[in-house]
Amino acid sequence: MTGDDPLEESESGEPLTDGGAAGADDVALDPWGSSSVSDYRKLFEEFGIEEFDEILEEVPNPHYLMRRGVIFGHRDYRPVAEALQNDEPAAVLSGFMPTGDPHIGHKLVFDEIIWHQQQGADAYALIADLEANSARGMSWEEIDDHARDYLLSLLALGFDPEAGELYRQSTNRKLQDLAFELGADANFSEFQAIYGFDGETDVSHMQSVVTQMADILYPQLEEPKPTVIPVGPDQDPHVRLARDLAERMRFFKVSEAYASFELEPEERALVADFYADLEPADFDDDQLRCVHVAEAIEETPLSELAVDADTLSSVLTKLEEAGMEPIRPRTRFFDRRATDEAFDALIDAVEGEKRVYENHVDAFDLDRAEAEELAREVEVDNGGYGFQPPSSIYHRFMTGLTGGKMSSSIPASHISLLDDPEDGYDKVKAATTGGRETAEEQREKGGKADECPVYELYAYLLSGDDDEFAKRVYDECVGGERLCGDCKEQAAQLMKEFLEDHQEKRDEVEDLLEDADIELESPRRR
């Protein structure tokens, strides 16, 4: 979510947020790793990241990064897309650790924030200055200088500070208070399992993760709403933890149930299958009861049940102990951390048939979606946050101009948004390509655009919103019509023009930044 300079290895607690971010080898999603994700397909299979193409048609006016597959995956983005479609509240947030110059990788995330803002979402951009100071040891003077550069580029690209919010971690008391609350629901063993923390990990590193969780949930402080966090796929562990914490902060857990007792998900699925298949009359009864389901399950071979022996034993025990209690589908409100007043308010708010127990309320006339909405309304009305699990979108990593990963220690591998336009031109001219060894071979076999850092520049930046131009460059390359020398010359010229234009706009928004509601000089400077 919030990132430092994503061109080099991240040792911080903040997610990196651009195409040049350090990734993780294969599927070991390590937010502080040093290699790059080499097989995006495994992310879908092993981590539950969904393919963005599957929801592209549901996104209003999709950004070119979405259309071209640069944004390739998502986690639960559909609520955000639906909110944008229906002009309902939604939010986008990302941030930047000011450890170096903003660069073309950061532009990906700037664009994603700005696009969501233009589609009607509340937009938040933050400076992760606490992280930069505690994890990287940067002075507050250095942080202020770099923060200013990030903010100027964000504004120059189109962020509207009057319609959105800019903030620094160090001066946002609401954020710090939220981080404190979230910290009570996180523990060291969890951080150890997710991030590999050990006895040598300093406390500030752990605090930075909790602050990051607060950043992710910050847009929902005033009201719960679908919120998207643009990240690189190596930052997915942060998103998963934030989603877990959002659920733990909720007053009520809403689930489906079939009896007064609680079932684990695998047990519930098993009971649901038998409920759908069994007829009460087969047991000489007008209602299907727990003992009936237990009897039917016991008579079924384990190989046909798709559960393990432990799950089978557990569900049978629960059903047999419940005896003649009827099996009836219902929606359950489980009291996770509600106040007594909120629990009583929920009981009053549930209409129709209901059963009230010590720690939960069962409703028989509400479906799951209605129950979720009701639980959130009661929670917010009674002083809770009602957080919705944050969503995320994932973009591909950019290849370094010299091949391999981008690195801030190798200036030729990346282009800063502050580079002299002539230097940007020269870097592109010197870049590695996906071309063949000779022009003749290139004309015969075509170039390898999918492996070309220069083509990535066209797709990610230089073609802008012109899909036809991006496709023409690709087709001409793989068809052998476009040779690398001419292609790089065109790309270098476009990069020079982009940097000239961007830097002119940075100058134009100086006054806009001065008027923005964000501290440009840290009060911690001495």
UniProtKB/TrEMBL annotation:
Gene3D superfamilies: HUPs, Tyrosyl-Transfer RNA Synthetase
CC per GO annotation: cytoplasm
Region (Disordered): 1-31, 505-526
Pfam family, one: tRNA-synt_1b
Highest rank taxon of the organism: Archaea
EC number of this enzyme: 6.1.1.2
Keywords carried by this UniProt record: Aminoacyl-tRNA synthetase, ATP-binding, Cytoplasm, Ligase, Nucleotide-binding, Protein biosynthesis
BP-aspect Gene Ontology terms: tryptophanyl-tRNA aminoacylation
UniProt short sequence motif 'HIGH' region, positions renumbered to this chain: 98-106
Single Gene Ontology MF annotation: ATP binding
Predominant location category: cytoplasm
Biased composition regions of type Acidic residues, renumbered to the chain: 1-12, 509-520
Locations listed in the record: Cytoplasm
Motif ('KMSKS' region): 405-409
Reaction catalysis annotation: tRNA(Trp) + L-tryptophan + ATP = L-tryptophyl-tRNA(Trp) + AMP + diphosphate + H(+)
TM helices/strands, residue ranges: none
Keyword match rRNA processing: no
Function: Catalyzes the attachment of tryptophan to tRNA(Trp).
Family under the similarity heading: Belongs to the class-I aminoacyl-tRNA synthetase family.
Name assigned to this protein: Tryptophan--tRNA ligase
